[in-house]
Design brief:
Length: about 400
């Protein structure tokens, strides 16, 4: 089995992008609970994200969602982030909260609505130019609720045309990632429901159009690591949105519902070169903290990814290949499970301490006084929330 020393270079490269919206209030259609200290501005969200990075060394970039994080001067916001010790990352578009999009956005049958949705994405690329962001992430709520409601094939053609115009606006160092989700808010059909559709759409655009895999966007029982392996094999895995699901798109803390699944995914990421030097697979969180404090929720999340990555890196590949090639079913499985069952927490504590970080970032946060400080300082104003 590899040692901590062997896996250190890869651990050093591990970077997990955090979403600005994770720091705002969120909930369900039943209730959104407010939390003292919740950011009121994009700057306060970035300050919280920087605190996560300061304590873990794992989260150097913050993703923005437009228009939720709209500001007058994005270059200044980028400088603000840098002063805090982080940089601005992926720009997420939003075509799901305007009345115009009731029947779709980039797939809508009305050219005027498609125009509005395309223009929103072009504005997002302008923002990327100002922030220096590499990736434009597109997730569409487009779909229909009733059979016969829309022409599902024409909508694919509209999607292709819309994406073509957006893709053409990107510069050579920018990418588009197209996220899929099998249902919700549309219940009968969704225009980008699965990795195959996302792959077909991005493959028709060019090399800098890739698939975004949100771990919560699959039917129960889906073998997500197989999709990871396939997309890496095809060179089209652009990014992950990590989170946990028990039932649907729960957006819970990654690794909370099924740590073994996260391990299996990370095994395929490692196997497919996703953590190799120079890899451009982006690891991001897409989570909401409905009842727990948000900053420690994010700290827990990036630590979970780090822990499962370390376990995946400890997998004895040579022994596994030998067992696989000799048809040793139980032997191969035992090697795989040995890596999963390895408690890497003491090893990672040592790793962090050697880098001047706290060995235990969760305790360090609890003792830092940061939660009390933001709860005391952030009084008045309007707390940020998912969808506002
Ligand atoms: C949709 O459920 C999604 O996963 C997309 O990534 C959005 O950008 C994100 O949630 C926040 O709305
Ligand atoms: Mn997502």
């Amino acid at each position: 089995m590899p040692t901590l020393h062997d896996i250190t270079p890869v651990l050093d490269r591990l970077a997990i992008e955090v979403p600005s919206w994770a720091y705002g209030n969120s909930g369900t259609r039943f209730k959104v609970f407010a939390t003292p200290g919740t950011p009121r501005t994009p700057q306060e969200k970035i300050a919280d994200a920087a605190q996560v990075h300061r304590l873990t060394g794992l989260a150097p970039t913050v993703a923005l969602h437009i228009p939720w994080d709209k500001v007058d001067d994005y270059a200044a916001l980028g400088r603000f982030a840098q002063d805090q010790g982080v940089t601005l990352g992926t720009i997420n578009s939003n075509t799901f909260q305007d009345d115009a999009y009731k029947f779709g956005s980039l797939t809508h049958n009305d050219p005027a609505v498609r125009r509005q949705a395309i223009d929103h994405h072009l504005e997002c690329v302008d923002i990327m130019d100002a922030t220096g962001s590499r990736d434009l992430k597109i997730w569409l709520a487009d779909g229909t609720n009733y059979p016969g409601q829309g022409d599902i094939r024409t909508r694919q053609d509209h999607l292709h045309e819309s994406l073509t115009e957006i893709y053409a606006r990107l510069s050579d160092d920018q990418r588009m990632v197209l996220e899929y989700k099998f249902f919700e808010p549309a219940f009968y059909h969704t225009d980008v429901p699965d990795w195959g559709t996302s792959y077909a759409q991005v493959a028709a655009l060019g090399d800098r159009a890739l698939v975004c895999l949100d771990t919560g966007h699959h039917a129960p029982g889906t073998n997500i690591e197989f999709i990871v392996a396939q997309l890496l094999r095809l060179g089209r895995l652009g990014s992950f949105d990590f989170n946990s699901r028990f039932y649907a798109d729960d957006d819970l803390i990654v690794g909370a519902a099924d740590p073994f699944q996260l391990f299996r995914i990370m095994v395929e990421v490692v196997r497919g070169g996703g953590l190799d030097e120079g890899s451009d697979v982006a690891l991001m969180l897409d989570q909401c903290h409905n009842i727990e404090d948000k900053v420690p929720g994010q700290i827990r999340s990036v630590l979970n990814v780090q822990e499962m990555t370390a376990r995946a890196l400890l997998l004895d590949r040579d022994a596994l290949t030998k067992a696989q090639e000799s048809g040793d079913v139980l032997g191969a499985n035992a090697i795989f499970m040995d890596a999963f069952y390895t408690d890497v927490r003491p090893m990672l504590a040592e790793y962090r301490a050697a880098r001047g970080l706290s060995a235990d970032p969760m305790t360090a946060y609890a003792e830092s006084g940061y939660q009390h400080k933001i709860a005391t300082e952030r009084v008045g104003g309007r707390q940020a929330g998912w969808g506002a």
